[in-house]
Amino acid sequence: MEIVMSILAGTLFAAGVYLLLQKQLLKIVLGTALLSHGAHLFILTMGKLNRGAPPILEKGIKIYTDPLPQALILTSIVISFGVTSFLLVLAYRTYQSNKTDMMDQLRGTDDE
Amino acid sequence: MFFNKKQKLTLNLSLFTVFLNLGVAIFLSYYVFANGPLILETGAWKAPYGIILVADQLSVIMILAVNVIAISAVIFAASSVTSNMTQHYFYPLFFLLIAGVSGAFLTGDLFNLFVFFEVLLMASYGLIIIGGSKHQFRESVKYILLNLFSSILFVTTVAFLYSVTGTVNMAQLGERVAEVEQRGILTAIAILLFIVFATKGALFPLYFWLPKSYIVPAPVVSALFGALLTKVGVYSMLRVYTLIFSHKLELTHTFFIWVATITMLIGVIGALSTSNVKLIIAYNIMPAIGFMVLGIGTFSAESLAGTIYYLVHDMAIKAALFFLAGLLVWHSGTSDLNKMGGYIKTAPLMGWMFFIASLVLAGIPPFSGFIGKYLLLRGAMDEEHYWAAGVGLLSSLLILFSVIRIFIGAFWGELKEEPKEKVRRSGLAASAVLIAITIILGVGAEWFYPYIQSTADSLIDPEIYIDYVLKE
Protein backbone atom coordinates (compact mmCIF):
# COMPACT_ATOMS: atom_id res chain seq x y z
CA MET A 1 0.00 0.00 0.00
CA GLU A 2 2.82 2.38 0.86
CA ILE A 3 4.36 1.78 -2.57
CA VAL A 4 1.14 2.73 -4.35
CA MET A 5 0.77 5.85 -2.25
CA SER A 6 4.37 6.89 -2.88
CA ILE A 7 3.90 6.49 -6.62
CA LEU A 8 0.70 8.54 -6.41
CA ALA A 9 2.46 11.29 -4.47
CA GLY A 10 5.31 11.21 -6.97
CA THR A 11 2.88 11.54 -9.88
CA LEU A 12 1.23 14.52 -8.21
CA PHE A 13 4.62 16.11 -7.66
CA ALA A 14 5.62 15.58 -11.29
CA ALA A 15 2.34 17.03 -12.57
CA GLY A 16 2.64 19.94 -10.14
CA VAL A 17 6.16 20.79 -11.23
CA TYR A 18 5.11 20.52 -14.88
CA LEU A 19 2.28 22.99 -14.27
CA LEU A 20 4.58 25.30 -12.28
CA LEU A 21 6.79 25.62 -15.34
CA GLN A 22 3.92 26.84 -17.53
CA LYS A 23 3.55 30.46 -18.52
CA GLN A 24 -0.06 31.04 -17.60
CA LEU A 25 -0.63 32.23 -14.05
CA LEU A 26 -3.71 30.09 -13.44
CA LYS A 27 -1.89 26.93 -14.45
CA ILE A 28 0.92 27.81 -12.05
CA VAL A 29 -1.55 28.24 -9.20
CA LEU A 30 -3.11 24.86 -9.99
CA GLY A 31 0.41 23.44 -10.03
CA THR A 32 1.05 24.62 -6.48
CA ALA A 33 -2.27 23.08 -5.40
CA LEU A 34 -1.25 19.72 -6.89
CA LEU A 35 2.18 19.97 -5.29
CA SER A 36 0.71 20.54 -1.86
CA HIS A 37 -1.65 17.57 -2.32
CA GLY A 38 1.35 15.47 -3.19
CA ALA A 39 3.17 16.67 -0.08
CA HIS A 40 0.17 15.85 2.14
CA LEU A 41 -0.22 12.34 0.75
CA PHE A 42 3.50 11.91 1.25
CA ILE A 43 3.29 12.80 4.94
CA LEU A 44 0.49 10.27 5.36
CA THR A 45 2.54 7.59 3.67
CA MET A 46 5.65 8.36 5.70
CA GLY A 47 3.73 7.82 8.92
CA LYS A 48 3.05 4.17 7.90
CA LEU A 49 -0.44 3.22 6.79
CA ASN A 50 -2.19 1.12 9.42
CA ARG A 51 -5.84 0.25 9.65
CA GLY A 52 -8.17 -0.95 12.33
CA ALA A 53 -6.31 0.25 15.40
CA PRO A 54 -6.94 3.29 17.57
CA PRO A 55 -4.25 5.93 17.97
CA ILE A 56 -3.74 5.06 21.63
CA LEU A 57 -0.45 4.03 23.12
CA GLU A 58 -0.57 2.29 26.46
CA LYS A 59 1.33 -0.51 28.11
CA GLY A 60 0.45 -3.81 26.49
CA ILE A 61 -0.94 -2.39 23.27
CA LYS A 62 1.13 -3.47 20.30
CA ILE A 63 -0.92 -2.33 17.28
CA TYR A 64 -1.71 1.36 17.03
CA THR A 65 -1.93 4.02 14.36
CA ASP A 66 0.37 6.97 14.61
CA PRO A 67 -1.71 10.13 15.16
CA LEU A 68 1.11 12.59 14.53
CA PRO A 69 1.16 12.55 10.70
CA GLN A 70 -2.57 13.18 10.70
CA ALA A 71 -2.14 16.20 12.93
CA LEU A 72 0.65 17.46 10.69
CA ILE A 73 -1.42 17.01 7.53
CA LEU A 74 -4.40 18.78 9.03
CA THR A 75 -2.28 21.83 9.84
CA SER A 76 -0.63 21.71 6.46
CA ILE A 77 -3.95 21.37 4.58
CA VAL A 78 -5.42 24.38 6.32
CA ILE A 79 -2.36 26.46 5.49
CA SER A 80 -2.23 25.43 1.84
CA PHE A 81 -5.99 26.02 1.56
CA GLY A 82 -5.56 29.59 2.75
CA VAL A 83 -2.51 30.28 0.61
CA THR A 84 -4.10 28.83 -2.53
CA SER A 85 -7.23 30.95 -2.20
CA PHE A 86 -5.07 34.02 -1.57
CA LEU A 87 -2.97 33.18 -4.59
CA LEU A 88 -6.06 32.86 -6.80
CA VAL A 89 -7.27 36.31 -5.78
CA LEU A 90 -3.79 37.74 -6.27
CA ALA A 91 -3.48 36.14 -9.72
CA TYR A 92 -6.79 37.71 -10.71
CA ARG A 93 -5.77 41.16 -9.44
CA THR A 94 -2.40 40.88 -11.16
CA TYR A 95 -4.19 40.05 -14.38
CA GLN A 96 -6.49 43.04 -13.90
CA SER A 97 -3.77 45.60 -13.18
CA ASN A 98 -1.09 44.31 -15.56
CA LYS A 99 -3.49 43.33 -18.38
CA THR A 100 -1.74 40.02 -18.87
CA ASP A 101 -1.44 36.66 -17.15
CA MET A 102 1.60 35.39 -19.01
CA MET A 103 4.67 35.11 -16.84
CA ASP A 104 7.09 36.15 -19.59
CA GLN A 105 5.30 39.48 -19.91
CA LEU A 106 5.35 40.06 -16.17
CA ARG A 107 9.00 41.02 -16.12
CA GLY A 108 10.15 44.33 -14.77
CA THR A 109 12.99 46.63 -15.68
CA ASP A 110 15.57 48.09 -13.34
CA ASP A 111 14.37 51.65 -13.29
CA GLU A 112 10.81 52.18 -12.30
CA MET B 1 -7.34 45.51 14.15
CA PHE B 2 -10.73 46.97 14.95
CA PHE B 3 -9.65 50.60 14.73
CA ASN B 4 -8.41 50.53 11.19
CA LYS B 5 -10.22 53.78 10.40
CA LYS B 6 -8.64 55.71 13.28
CA GLN B 7 -5.03 56.29 12.34
CA LYS B 8 -3.85 58.20 15.41
CA LEU B 9 -5.29 55.69 17.86
CA THR B 10 -3.79 52.73 15.99
CA LEU B 11 -0.38 54.35 15.96
CA ASN B 12 -0.37 55.07 19.67
CA LEU B 13 -1.66 51.62 20.47
CA SER B 14 1.09 50.10 18.31
CA LEU B 15 3.77 52.21 19.99
CA PHE B 16 2.55 51.11 23.40
CA THR B 17 2.56 47.47 22.31
CA VAL B 18 6.07 47.45 20.85
CA PHE B 19 7.52 49.05 23.97
CA LEU B 20 5.67 46.53 26.13
CA ASN B 21 7.10 43.79 23.94
CA LEU B 22 10.61 45.15 24.32
CA GLY B 23 10.17 45.19 28.10
CA VAL B 24 9.11 41.55 28.07
CA ALA B 25 12.00 40.65 25.75
CA ILE B 26 14.53 42.38 28.03
CA PHE B 27 13.17 40.58 31.07
CA LEU B 28 13.23 37.27 29.19
CA SER B 29 16.85 37.72 28.12
CA TYR B 30 17.88 38.72 31.61
CA TYR B 31 16.19 35.63 32.99
CA VAL B 32 17.67 33.28 30.39
CA PHE B 33 21.23 34.58 30.77
CA ALA B 34 20.96 34.37 34.55
CA ASN B 35 19.12 31.08 34.95
CA GLY B 36 19.50 29.12 31.72
CA PRO B 37 16.99 28.26 28.98
CA LEU B 38 13.28 28.56 29.57
CA ILE B 39 10.89 25.96 28.17
CA LEU B 40 7.16 26.27 27.60
CA GLU B 41 5.31 23.03 27.00
CA THR B 42 2.14 23.98 25.20
CA GLY B 43 -0.91 22.16 26.51
CA ALA B 44 1.28 20.58 29.22
CA TRP B 45 2.37 17.77 26.89
CA LYS B 46 5.84 16.56 27.82
CA ALA B 47 8.78 17.42 25.60
CA PRO B 48 9.16 14.81 22.87
CA TYR B 49 5.39 14.51 22.30
CA GLY B 50 3.95 17.99 22.59
CA ILE B 51 5.01 21.17 20.87
CA ILE B 52 7.53 23.11 22.90
CA LEU B 53 8.80 26.65 22.82
CA VAL B 54 12.39 27.01 23.93
CA ALA B 55 13.98 30.32 24.86
CA ASP B 56 17.70 29.63 24.95
CA GLN B 57 20.45 32.26 24.60
CA LEU B 58 20.38 32.39 20.81
CA SER B 59 16.60 32.74 20.73
CA VAL B 60 16.46 35.60 23.22
CA ILE B 61 19.21 37.52 21.44
CA MET B 62 17.18 37.28 18.26
CA ILE B 63 13.93 38.21 20.02
CA LEU B 64 15.61 41.26 21.49
CA ALA B 65 16.86 42.34 18.07
CA VAL B 66 13.42 41.79 16.51
CA ASN B 67 11.76 43.98 19.09
CA VAL B 68 14.24 46.82 18.61
CA ILE B 69 13.57 46.67 14.85
CA ALA B 70 9.83 46.66 15.56
CA ILE B 71 10.10 49.83 17.64
CA SER B 72 12.07 51.66 14.99
CA ALA B 73 9.62 50.47 12.32
CA VAL B 74 6.65 51.86 14.23
CA ILE B 75 8.46 55.19 14.70
CA PHE B 76 9.19 55.25 11.00
CA ALA B 77 5.60 54.28 10.23
CA ALA B 78 4.37 57.36 12.11
CA SER B 79 5.33 59.54 9.17
CA SER B 80 5.19 57.11 6.30
CA VAL B 81 2.10 54.96 6.71
CA THR B 82 -0.77 56.65 4.93
CA SER B 83 -4.36 56.42 6.09
CA ASN B 84 -4.95 54.15 3.11
CA MET B 85 -2.34 51.72 4.41
CA THR B 86 -3.77 51.86 7.91
CA GLN B 87 -7.21 51.12 6.57
CA HIS B 88 -5.85 48.12 4.76
CA TYR B 89 -4.60 46.67 8.02
CA PHE B 90 -0.94 47.62 7.97
CA TYR B 91 -0.58 47.41 11.75
CA PRO B 92 -2.32 44.04 12.28
CA LEU B 93 -0.22 42.51 9.50
CA PHE B 94 2.88 44.11 10.98
CA PHE B 95 2.24 42.52 14.36
CA LEU B 96 1.41 39.21 12.72
CA LEU B 97 4.82 39.37 11.03
CA ILE B 98 6.54 40.11 14.33
CA ALA B 99 4.64 37.25 15.97
CA GLY B 100 5.62 34.85 13.19
CA VAL B 101 9.28 35.84 13.32
CA SER B 102 9.42 35.62 17.13
CA GLY B 103 7.68 32.25 17.03
CA ALA B 104 10.17 30.93 14.49
CA PHE B 105 12.99 32.02 16.80
CA LEU B 106 11.44 30.39 19.83
CA THR B 107 10.08 27.09 18.65
CA GLY B 108 11.75 23.81 19.51
CA ASP B 109 9.84 21.71 17.01
CA LEU B 110 10.65 21.39 13.32
CA PHE B 111 7.06 21.18 12.12
CA ASN B 112 6.12 24.09 14.32
CA LEU B 113 8.94 26.02 12.66
CA PHE B 114 7.16 25.39 9.36
CA VAL B 115 3.91 26.69 10.83
CA PHE B 116 5.58 29.90 12.06
CA PHE B 117 7.24 30.28 8.67
CA GLU B 118 3.77 30.21 7.16
CA VAL B 119 2.48 32.74 9.70
CA LEU B 120 5.21 35.22 8.88
CA LEU B 121 4.93 34.54 5.17
CA MET B 122 1.18 35.10 5.25
CA ALA B 123 1.76 38.44 6.96
CA SER B 124 4.44 39.31 4.42
CA TYR B 125 2.11 38.41 1.52
CA GLY B 126 -0.37 40.89 2.95
CA LEU B 127 2.25 43.58 3.53
CA ILE B 128 3.88 43.31 0.13
CA ILE B 129 0.68 44.15 -1.77
CA ILE B 130 -0.55 46.99 0.48
CA GLY B 131 -0.85 49.91 -1.87
CA GLY B 132 -1.88 47.73 -4.78
CA SER B 133 0.25 49.19 -7.57
CA LYS B 134 0.95 47.39 -10.82
CA HIS B 135 4.57 46.60 -9.93
CA GLN B 136 3.63 45.32 -6.53
CA PHE B 137 1.23 42.75 -7.95
CA ARG B 138 3.71 41.70 -10.57
CA GLU B 139 6.59 41.13 -8.15
CA SER B 140 4.53 39.71 -5.30
CA VAL B 141 3.25 36.88 -7.50
CA LYS B 142 6.81 35.67 -7.99
CA TYR B 143 7.67 36.18 -4.34
CA ILE B 144 4.67 34.19 -3.16
CA LEU B 145 5.06 31.38 -5.68
CA LEU B 146 8.68 30.82 -4.76
CA ASN B 147 8.02 30.89 -1.04
CA LEU B 148 5.06 28.58 -1.46
CA PHE B 149 7.20 26.10 -3.35
CA SER B 150 9.90 26.14 -0.70
CA SER B 151 7.25 25.69 2.01
CA ILE B 152 5.94 22.58 0.25
CA LEU B 153 9.49 21.32 0.04
CA PHE B 154 9.85 22.00 3.77
CA VAL B 155 6.79 19.87 4.59
CA THR B 156 8.09 17.07 2.40
CA THR B 157 11.46 17.20 4.10
CA VAL B 158 9.86 17.07 7.53
CA ALA B 159 7.90 14.00 6.36
CA PHE B 160 11.13 12.33 5.23
CA LEU B 161 12.78 13.13 8.51
CA TYR B 162 9.80 11.82 10.45
CA SER B 163 9.83 8.54 8.60
CA VAL B 164 13.55 8.04 9.25
CA THR B 165 13.76 9.21 12.86
CA GLY B 166 10.16 9.06 14.11
CA THR B 167 10.12 12.51 15.68
CA VAL B 168 9.87 16.19 14.76
CA ASN B 169 11.14 17.56 18.07
CA MET B 170 14.46 19.28 17.40
CA ALA B 171 16.19 18.10 20.54
CA GLN B 172 15.11 14.50 19.99
CA LEU B 173 16.09 14.75 16.33
CA GLY B 174 19.52 15.90 17.42
CA GLU B 175 19.81 12.96 19.77
CA ARG B 176 18.62 10.35 17.26
CA VAL B 177 20.68 11.67 14.35
CA ALA B 178 23.73 11.57 16.59
CA GLU B 179 22.95 7.97 17.57
CA VAL B 180 23.13 6.72 13.99
CA GLU B 181 26.00 9.12 13.19
CA GLN B 182 24.07 10.78 10.37
CA ARG B 183 23.77 8.01 7.80
CA GLY B 184 23.63 8.72 4.05
CA ILE B 185 19.90 9.31 3.86
CA LEU B 186 20.03 11.84 6.69
CA THR B 187 22.73 13.81 4.92
CA ALA B 188 20.52 13.86 1.83
CA ILE B 189 17.69 15.21 3.98
CA ALA B 190 20.06 17.78 5.44
CA ILE B 191 20.88 19.09 1.96
CA LEU B 192 17.17 19.14 1.03
CA LEU B 193 16.47 21.20 4.15
CA PHE B 194 19.35 23.48 3.22
CA ILE B 195 17.64 24.18 -0.11
CA VAL B 196 14.50 25.21 1.79
CA PHE B 197 16.36 27.61 4.07
CA ALA B 198 18.51 28.84 1.20
CA THR B 199 15.37 29.88 -0.65
CA LYS B 200 14.10 31.76 2.39
CA GLY B 201 17.50 33.31 3.01
CA ALA B 202 18.27 34.10 -0.65
CA LEU B 203 21.47 32.14 -1.10
CA PHE B 204 23.28 31.75 -4.40
CA PRO B 205 21.21 29.77 -6.86
CA LEU B 206 17.91 30.77 -5.25
CA TYR B 207 18.29 34.51 -4.74
CA PHE B 208 16.66 35.88 -7.90
CA TRP B 209 13.29 36.62 -6.30
CA LEU B 210 14.75 38.84 -3.60
CA PRO B 211 16.00 42.18 -4.97
CA LYS B 212 13.00 43.13 -7.09
CA SER B 213 10.34 42.00 -4.67
CA TYR B 214 11.99 43.84 -1.78
CA ILE B 215 11.91 47.23 -3.47
CA VAL B 216 8.28 47.35 -4.59
CA PRO B 217 6.45 47.74 -1.25
CA ALA B 218 6.51 50.84 0.97
CA PRO B 219 9.95 51.60 2.53
CA VAL B 220 8.87 50.55 6.01
CA VAL B 221 7.80 47.17 4.64
CA SER B 222 11.04 46.76 2.66
CA ALA B 223 12.98 47.54 5.81
CA LEU B 224 11.06 44.92 7.78
CA PHE B 225 11.57 42.32 5.05
CA GLY B 226 15.23 43.12 4.65
CA ALA B 227 15.85 43.08 8.37
CA LEU B 228 13.76 40.10 9.42
CA LEU B 229 12.69 37.66 6.71
CA THR B 230 16.00 36.49 5.30
CA LYS B 231 17.43 36.40 8.82
CA VAL B 232 14.82 33.83 9.84
CA GLY B 233 16.25 31.57 7.15
CA VAL B 234 19.75 32.09 8.51
CA TYR B 235 18.61 31.50 12.08
CA SER B 236 16.94 28.23 11.07
CA MET B 237 20.17 27.14 9.41
CA LEU B 238 22.13 28.12 12.49
CA ARG B 239 19.80 26.06 14.66
CA VAL B 240 19.39 22.99 12.48
CA TYR B 241 23.00 22.61 11.35
CA THR B 242 24.46 22.98 14.81
CA LEU B 243 21.88 20.97 16.72
CA ILE B 244 20.78 18.22 14.34
CA PHE B 245 23.03 17.76 11.31
CA SER B 246 26.50 18.39 12.64
CA HIS B 247 28.12 15.00 12.15
CA LYS B 248 29.15 15.05 8.48
CA LEU B 249 30.89 18.40 8.48
CA GLU B 250 33.22 17.68 5.58
CA LEU B 251 30.21 17.16 3.32
CA THR B 252 27.46 19.57 4.33
CA HIS B 253 29.42 22.43 5.82
CA THR B 254 32.06 22.54 3.06
CA PHE B 255 29.16 22.84 0.65
CA PHE B 256 27.86 25.79 2.72
CA ILE B 257 31.18 27.59 2.44
CA TRP B 258 31.15 27.31 -1.35
CA VAL B 259 27.56 28.51 -1.61
CA ALA B 260 28.28 31.38 0.81
CA THR B 261 31.32 32.51 -1.16
CA ILE B 262 29.45 32.58 -4.46
CA THR B 263 26.51 34.38 -2.81
CA MET B 264 28.80 37.17 -1.58
CA LEU B 265 30.26 37.68 -5.05
CA ILE B 266 26.93 37.60 -6.89
CA GLY B 267 25.41 39.98 -4.32
CA VAL B 268 28.05 42.69 -4.70
CA ILE B 269 28.09 42.33 -8.48
CA GLY B 270 24.32 42.90 -8.42
CA ALA B 271 24.73 45.91 -6.15
CA LEU B 272 27.29 47.43 -8.51
CA SER B 273 25.27 46.74 -11.62
CA THR B 274 22.34 49.05 -10.96
CA SER B 275 21.78 52.73 -10.33
CA ASN B 276 18.46 52.29 -8.53
CA VAL B 277 19.11 53.31 -4.93
CA LYS B 278 16.67 50.86 -3.38
CA LEU B 279 17.91 48.03 -5.54
CA ILE B 280 21.51 48.64 -4.43
CA ILE B 281 20.46 48.28 -0.81
CA ALA B 282 18.37 45.20 -1.60
CA TYR B 283 21.29 43.50 -3.35
CA ASN B 284 23.45 44.26 -0.32
CA ILE B 285 21.36 41.82 1.69
CA MET B 286 22.96 38.94 -0.14
CA PRO B 287 26.65 39.38 0.74
CA ALA B 288 25.56 39.75 4.37
CA ILE B 289 23.72 36.43 4.19
CA GLY B 290 26.83 34.98 2.57
CA PHE B 291 28.96 36.12 5.52
CA MET B 292 26.62 34.52 8.03
CA VAL B 293 26.46 31.21 6.17
CA LEU B 294 30.24 31.26 5.88
CA GLY B 295 30.30 31.37 9.68
CA ILE B 296 27.94 28.40 9.92
CA GLY B 297 30.00 26.50 7.37
CA THR B 298 33.26 27.14 9.19
CA PHE B 299 31.67 25.75 12.35
CA SER B 300 34.01 26.81 15.11
CA ALA B 301 33.03 28.60 18.33
CA GLU B 302 34.62 31.77 17.04
CA SER B 303 32.95 31.82 13.64
CA LEU B 304 29.56 31.00 15.16
CA ALA B 305 29.99 33.93 17.55
CA GLY B 306 30.79 36.02 14.48
CA THR B 307 27.63 34.82 12.76
CA ILE B 308 25.44 35.74 15.73
CA TYR B 309 27.10 39.13 16.05
CA TYR B 310 26.75 39.78 12.35
CA LEU B 311 23.11 38.63 12.38
CA VAL B 312 22.15 41.20 15.02
CA HIS B 313 24.27 43.93 13.42
CA ASP B 314 22.84 43.25 9.99
CA MET B 315 19.23 43.36 11.15
CA ALA B 316 19.76 46.85 12.55
CA ILE B 317 21.84 48.28 9.72
CA LYS B 318 19.72 46.85 6.89
CA ALA B 319 16.57 48.34 8.41
CA ALA B 320 18.37 51.69 8.84
CA LEU B 321 19.62 51.69 5.24
CA PHE B 322 16.20 50.84 3.84
CA PHE B 323 14.72 53.66 5.94
CA LEU B 324 17.32 56.11 4.67
CA ALA B 325 16.93 54.99 1.07
CA GLY B 326 13.18 55.43 1.40
CA LEU B 327 13.65 58.94 2.81
CA LEU B 328 16.09 59.79 0.05
CA VAL B 329 13.68 58.64 -2.63
CA TRP B 330 10.88 60.71 -1.12
CA HIS B 331 13.17 63.70 -0.80
CA SER B 332 14.37 63.57 -4.39
CA GLY B 333 11.26 62.20 -6.03
CA THR B 334 13.20 59.58 -7.98
CA SER B 335 15.01 56.34 -7.23
CA ASP B 336 17.48 56.76 -10.10
CA LEU B 337 20.92 57.71 -8.80
CA ASN B 338 21.85 59.53 -12.03
CA LYS B 339 19.08 62.07 -11.51
CA MET B 340 20.17 62.93 -7.95
CA GLY B 341 22.88 65.23 -6.70
CA GLY B 342 23.74 67.90 -4.17
CA TYR B 343 21.22 66.94 -1.53
CA ILE B 344 23.78 67.51 1.24
CA LYS B 345 22.69 71.15 1.12
CA THR B 346 19.00 70.44 1.49
CA ALA B 347 19.25 67.43 3.81
CA PRO B 348 22.61 67.51 5.63
CA LEU B 349 21.54 65.32 8.54
CA MET B 350 20.25 62.58 6.28
CA GLY B 351 23.43 62.74 4.20
CA TRP B 352 25.78 62.25 7.14
CA MET B 353 23.63 59.52 8.58
CA PHE B 354 23.80 57.75 5.25
CA PHE B 355 27.58 58.10 5.30
CA ILE B 356 27.88 56.58 8.77
CA ALA B 357 25.46 53.80 7.84
CA SER B 358 27.61 52.98 4.80
CA LEU B 359 30.70 52.72 6.97
CA VAL B 360 28.86 50.51 9.44
CA LEU B 361 27.63 48.24 6.65
CA ALA B 362 31.07 47.83 5.13
CA GLY B 363 32.62 47.01 8.51
CA ILE B 364 34.99 49.93 9.03
CA PRO B 365 36.53 49.66 12.53
CA PRO B 366 34.93 51.15 15.49
CA PHE B 367 31.49 50.06 14.16
CA SER B 368 29.72 46.77 14.73
CA GLY B 369 30.17 45.37 11.22
CA PHE B 370 33.89 45.17 11.80
CA ILE B 371 33.65 42.96 14.88
CA GLY B 372 31.34 40.48 13.19
CA LYS B 373 33.44 40.33 10.05
CA TYR B 374 36.67 40.07 12.02
CA LEU B 375 35.39 37.07 13.97
CA LEU B 376 34.01 35.41 10.84
CA LEU B 377 37.13 35.89 8.77
CA ARG B 378 39.49 34.90 11.56
CA GLY B 379 37.37 31.79 12.09
CA ALA B 380 37.59 31.00 8.37
CA MET B 381 41.39 31.58 8.38
CA ASP B 382 41.87 29.31 11.38
CA GLU B 383 40.03 26.52 9.60
CA GLU B 384 42.11 27.19 6.47
CA HIS B 385 39.37 28.42 4.18
CA TYR B 386 41.62 31.08 2.71
CA TRP B 387 39.70 31.41 -0.52
CA ALA B 388 36.43 32.13 1.23
CA ALA B 389 38.11 34.64 3.54
CA GLY B 390 39.73 36.37 0.59
CA VAL B 391 36.44 36.66 -1.26
CA GLY B 392 34.89 37.95 1.96
CA LEU B 393 37.46 40.73 2.21
CA LEU B 394 37.07 41.62 -1.44
CA SER B 395 33.31 41.72 -1.21
CA SER B 396 33.39 43.99 1.87
CA LEU B 397 35.47 46.42 -0.16
CA LEU B 398 32.96 46.27 -2.99
CA ILE B 399 30.05 46.69 -0.55
CA LEU B 400 31.68 49.88 0.69
CA PHE B 401 32.10 51.03 -2.89
CA SER B 402 28.49 50.29 -3.82
CA VAL B 403 26.96 52.23 -0.90
CA ILE B 404 29.45 55.10 -0.97
CA ARG B 405 28.47 55.44 -4.63
CA ILE B 406 24.98 56.38 -3.41
CA PHE B 407 26.46 58.89 -0.96
CA ILE B 408 28.65 60.51 -3.61
CA GLY B 409 26.01 60.46 -6.31
CA ALA B 410 23.12 61.71 -4.25
CA PHE B 411 24.76 64.15 -1.86
CA TRP B 412 27.82 65.56 -3.58
CA GLY B 413 27.97 67.97 -6.48
CA GLU B 414 25.53 70.59 -7.63
CA LEU B 415 21.86 70.45 -6.83
CA LYS B 416 20.34 68.92 -9.94
CA GLU B 417 16.67 69.04 -9.09
CA GLU B 418 14.81 70.82 -6.32
CA PRO B 419 13.81 68.37 -3.58
CA LYS B 420 10.19 67.29 -3.71
CA GLU B 421 9.56 67.41 0.01
CA LYS B 422 11.28 67.95 3.33
CA VAL B 423 12.94 65.04 5.06
CA ARG B 424 10.44 63.38 7.37
CA ARG B 425 11.49 63.84 10.97
CA SER B 426 10.26 60.59 12.49
CA GLY B 427 11.90 58.70 9.66
CA LEU B 428 15.25 60.22 10.57
CA ALA B 429 14.63 59.45 14.23
CA ALA B 430 13.99 55.78 13.46
CA SER B 431 17.20 55.49 11.43
CA ALA B 432 19.13 57.36 14.12
CA VAL B 433 18.00 54.85 16.76
CA LEU B 434 19.23 51.93 14.67
CA ILE B 435 22.53 53.54 13.73
CA ALA B 436 23.12 54.38 17.38
CA ILE B 437 22.55 50.75 18.26
CA THR B 438 25.06 49.54 15.70
CA ILE B 439 27.61 52.04 17.03
CA ILE B 440 27.01 50.89 20.60
CA LEU B 441 27.33 47.28 19.46
CA GLY B 442 30.65 48.14 17.88
CA VAL B 443 32.20 50.42 20.48
CA GLY B 444 30.85 48.45 23.42
CA ALA B 445 31.81 45.10 21.97
CA GLU B 446 33.61 44.18 25.17
CA TRP B 447 30.37 44.25 27.14
CA PHE B 448 28.39 42.20 24.64
CA TYR B 449 31.05 39.79 23.52
CA PRO B 450 30.94 37.47 26.58
CA TYR B 451 27.20 36.89 26.05
CA ILE B 452 27.65 36.22 22.34
CA GLN B 453 30.58 33.92 23.10
CA SER B 454 28.65 31.88 25.65
CA THR B 455 25.79 31.58 23.14
CA ALA B 456 28.18 30.28 20.49
CA ASP B 457 29.69 27.84 23.00
CA SER B 458 26.25 26.47 23.75
CA LEU B 459 25.61 26.05 20.01
CA ILE B 460 28.81 24.15 19.35
CA ASP B 461 27.85 21.60 21.99
CA PRO B 462 24.30 20.41 21.18
CA GLU B 463 24.24 18.17 24.27
CA ILE B 464 23.43 21.18 26.44
CA TYR B 465 20.30 22.02 24.50
CA ILE B 466 19.18 18.40 24.26
CA ASP B 467 19.64 17.80 27.98
CA TYR B 468 17.65 20.89 28.84
CA VAL B 469 14.72 20.02 26.63
CA LEU B 470 14.51 16.31 27.28
CA LYS B 471 15.23 16.36 31.03
CA GLU B 472 12.83 14.33 33.08
Automatic annotation (TrEMBL), chain A:
Localization of this protein: Cell membrane
Keyword Membrane: yes
Chief location: membrane
Segments crossing the lipid bilayer: 6-21, 28-47, 67-92
Domain of life per record: Bacteria
Annotated membrane topology: Multi-pass membrane protein
Keywords carried by this UniProt record: Cell membrane, Membrane, Transmembrane, Transmembrane helix
Similarity annotation: Belongs to the CPA3 antiporters (TC 2.A.63) subunit C family.
Protein name per Swiss-Prot or TrEMBL: Na(+)/H(+) antiporter subunit C
Taxonomic classification: Bacteria, Bacillati, Bacillota, Bacilli, Bacillales
